């Protein structure tokens, strides 16, 4: 086989892998959105079988030779980037012994099940031994990957979610955040207190009316229904494949504001997937760059564009119309108070954008310590509660709303959390650059026209796929690698301006 | 590897194959019921990749040895039947050269696409060359399978849909049907003319009300929503897997009667799948016996149980309530006239149970002649129209409502049609046996209680899976192999009684 053939052969192999993964994405969406409960066992078997098939295709015995042969002839820049991503994905898959992969899959599944019950019962004691066993296995994975990639163990885990992400870099970024966030938060809270709380918006807000409003907003956000759907699931997510993006939300009749922003958030994820380079479908270079960039797109839509004064002014009449409501509580001014409310709290997923980074910094500290072997699971509740007090000034009354609130660790995901705040920073940086590059973007958003923004994102982010690192894509788009400055400017302008 | 290990290894292999096929079933359901149109290309790739994977697993190089080794040690009767089915499925998959499998998959897909357009335009000329090429390929497949199975070519095709089905047997059965059907039809039409037509039931019947009525009937039919769903698709079908059965229908606001019986028909299919032996999930012996038995279950629900006088009396008040309608047109008496109407027509899927067999007999004759090489595609319209005139006394005015009306041939399915009428005969035979075995069955149906019927079907049909031939299962359940007598008795009782 010639080296050129080797590359073509790899593209074919990865296309097949992508097709299996695409099928898995449909199976996962179906499980969450439409599957009757009695289908769970059969579905679990289908997913397990397809996962093994995808893994077998990826780790086939001839891959090392194919990757080596493909690299020995000239390829164009996209092909080079594709080959680089193929190698990265393959190395992550082969760095860990197959036996360990299977053990950890079972242990994650089991720990997650225990967590569901334990969280509801605020029973950390029953979770702790399972979670410690899982952590021990994750540390073995981290050690295997660290050896294979010549990285620090935590970095080796982080690299899977955020390719090229390194703790040393995050330490600097999060340190810069910490240098101003506590003071900024204090100022915001003071100022907010002087302004008073938003007026309550009493429900009920019928699900059908919320759905109709969501449909209207999807149109505004240029969500392409020929290539996507909106459905309901318990945990909102974005799934499917780039040409068939499935987003979900959950409606509460007592409050329309969370589901509405939830739909906008998922639409940001969906637009990223949808805008990935169409000629590289099914190839690793055609995939999203990483979780930081993915979160930047959802937060750019949710936090930057759609919590802007301009968009809220556009939104308020739609809300009044959707629910047939009126009065002070449904003015743009009150909606702004709702959507710009800052309140240190216990729960990450309920946090505003000022306090959210503190939740992430806590988790980042703790998971680094756990992976380093410096923190035992048994000592997690104390460390968590002390950290919450230090970082957010609140102390959880129990573990259910403390160190047991997130699925990530019981699910085996360590090294994921920092990408949320890296995404928030990237969102601010990208939105500032977009507005500077095209002054029509923000006024258009105020008219409900997202075409200019979307055009800029397509060109500068989405269509890059994985051709370049997160920092390379950000530098091309904004003139600089990931930094804190734009995020700080954004928070000051919105909350202290 | 010991022979016992070989059998265990085969069970494991077939479980994996079933998981891939289960995933394919979800992908197909999704395509028909919920997929946005822009997802079609990616879905096609996913389905193609998984189909190849399933085929590769089934035709792997070690299968012949495994099947041989597994047969050399004692197995219990279910295991023996399972091994028998494994061999059958494997022989069908390996009898045809891989290159031919791929060529015919492409040609079927292409011909089906041409058919969609050509049918709409009544343009048989543009379909004919494609269909002839496809027929040539199907004849090659038939020849390959005939050699491998030592069967007549048509039988070799039929065997895939109806294991053990043989044209010689069908000739006898259909000959018996023809010996009384024309005369019976004449008598029925005469009698019907003297009674007058049913009163029209003017719409509109809102989709929501039809859906609510369908939900009510699903409950009556013991459809288990923990293990199934009802959705909408252009062509109604039953899909999914036994623990997660997905049925679909299509609502027309001008007429509720077709969708209602459509849902009942698919529920019969669904109950069969759902009742397959649960300890043999994922094994060939745990699958439905064949298409004749499958159709017998849908027709037993639709034609035998739910067009009975007893059920129509139960149904009529539900219809009146569902649509808030009253008057003569919505009495049980009028609903009976609607559901027992006999009318020779052009279209098979619109046909009543008296004229339906004639549609099938025509197709059976023609496809046998085509496979034998005695009928060219170019001569199909003439043969079709002559056959319609002979068998049904009507002559199609065009090919769209003539020989182009069905998807089967353009989709590459030859040997499928006879199973519809074999199913109708089996349904009559099984229902008669069920009523004789448990006299509570029919009165219970009149009360909307399907538990006695379902219990009998579970025990005598569903739980048999593929353990035994169609005739063995029928003989155990009814005392005799498939025959015409019960069907004849049923038609005479309902239409001349």
Helices and strands in order:
The structure is a homodimer of 497-residue chains.
Chain A: H1 3-33, H2 40-58, H3 63-70, H4 77-94, H5 98-120, H6 124-149, H7 153-161, H8 167-195, H9 207-220, E1 228-232, E2 238-241, E3 244-249, H10 257-275, H11 291-305, H12 309-323, H13 332-339, H14 356-372, H15 380-392, H16 418-437, H17 441-446, H18 451-460, H19 470-478, H20 485-496
Helix pairs in contact in A: 1-2, 1-3, 5-6, 6-7, 8-20, 9-10, 9-12, 10-11, 11-16, 12-13, 14-15, 16-20
Description:
The structure is a homodimer of 497-residue chains. Chain A is 65% helix and 3% strand. With 497 residues, chain A is mainly α. Chain A folds into 2 domains: 3-120, no CATH class; 121-497, Orthogonal Bundle (Neurolysin, domain 3), CATH 1.10.1370. The first copy, chain A, has a 3-stranded mixed beta sheet with strand order 1-3-2, with helices on both faces. In chain A, a hairpin with a 2-residue loop joins strand 2 and strand 3 (244-249). Chain A is globular and about 70 Å long. Chain A starts with a helix and ends with a helix. The mean pLDDT of chain A is 96.
């Amino acid at each position: 086989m010639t080296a050129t053939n080797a590359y073509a052969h790899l593209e074919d192999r990865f296309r097949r892998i992508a097709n299996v993964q695409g099928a898995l994405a449909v199976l996962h969406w179906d499980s969450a959105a439409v599957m009757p409960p009695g289908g769970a066992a059969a579905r679990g078997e289908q997913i397990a079988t397809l996962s093994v098939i995808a893994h077998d295709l990826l780790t086939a015995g001839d891959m090392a030779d194919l990757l080596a042969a493909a690299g020995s002839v000239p390829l164009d820049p996209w092909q080079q980037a594709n080959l680089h991503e193929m190698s990265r994905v393959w190395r992550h898959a082969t760095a860990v012994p197959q036996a360990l992969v299977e053990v950890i899959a079972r242990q994650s599944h089991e720990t997650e099940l225990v967590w569901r019950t334990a969280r509801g019962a605020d029973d950390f004691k029953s979770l702790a031994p399972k979670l410690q066993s899982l952590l021990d296995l994750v540390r073995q994975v981290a050690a295997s990957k660290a050896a294979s990639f010549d990285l620090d163990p935590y970095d080796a885990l982080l690299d899977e979610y955020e390719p090229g992400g390194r703790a040393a870099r995050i330490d600097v970024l999060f340190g810069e955040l910490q240098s101003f966030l506590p003071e900024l938060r204090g100022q915001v809270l003071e100022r907010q207190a002087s302004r008073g709380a938003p007026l309550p918006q009493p429900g009920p807000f019928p699900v059908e009316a919320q759905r109709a409003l969501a449909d209207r907003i999807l149109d505004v956000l240029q969500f392409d229904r020929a290539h996507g759907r909106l459905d309901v699931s318990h945990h909102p997510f974005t799934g499917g494949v780039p040409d068939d993006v499935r987003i979900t939300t959950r409606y509460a009749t007592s409050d329309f504001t969370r589901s509405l922003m939830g739909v906008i958030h998922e639409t940001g994820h969906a637009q990223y997937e949808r805008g990935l380079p169409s000629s590289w479908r099914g190839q690793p270079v055609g995939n999203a760059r990483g979780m930081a960039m993915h979160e930047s797109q959802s937060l750019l839509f949710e936090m930057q564009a759609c919590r802007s004064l301009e968009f809220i002014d556009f939104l308020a009449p739609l809300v009044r119309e959707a629910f047939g409501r009126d009065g002070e509580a449904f003015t743009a001014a009150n909606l702004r108070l709702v959507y710009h409310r800052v309140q240190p709290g216990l729960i990450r997923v309920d946090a505003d954008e000022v306090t959210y980074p503190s939740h992430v910094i806590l988790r980042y500290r703790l998971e680094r310590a756990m992976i380093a072997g410096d923190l035992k699971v048994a000592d997690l509740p104390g460390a968590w509660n002390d950290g919450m007090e230090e970082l957010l000034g609140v102390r959880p009354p129990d573990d259910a709303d403390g160190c047991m609130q997130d699925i990530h660790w019981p699910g085996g995901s360590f090294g994921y959390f920092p990408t949320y705040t890296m995404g928030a920073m990237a969102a601010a940086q990208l939105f500032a650059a977009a507005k500077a590059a095209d002054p029509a973007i923000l006024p258009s958003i105020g008219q409900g026209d997202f075409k200019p923004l979307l055009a800029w994102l397509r060109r500068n982010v989405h269509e890059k796929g994985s051709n370049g690192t997160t920092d390379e894509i950000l530098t091309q788009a904004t003139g600089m690698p990931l930094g804190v400055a734009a995020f700080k400017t954004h928070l000051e302008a919105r909350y202290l301006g």
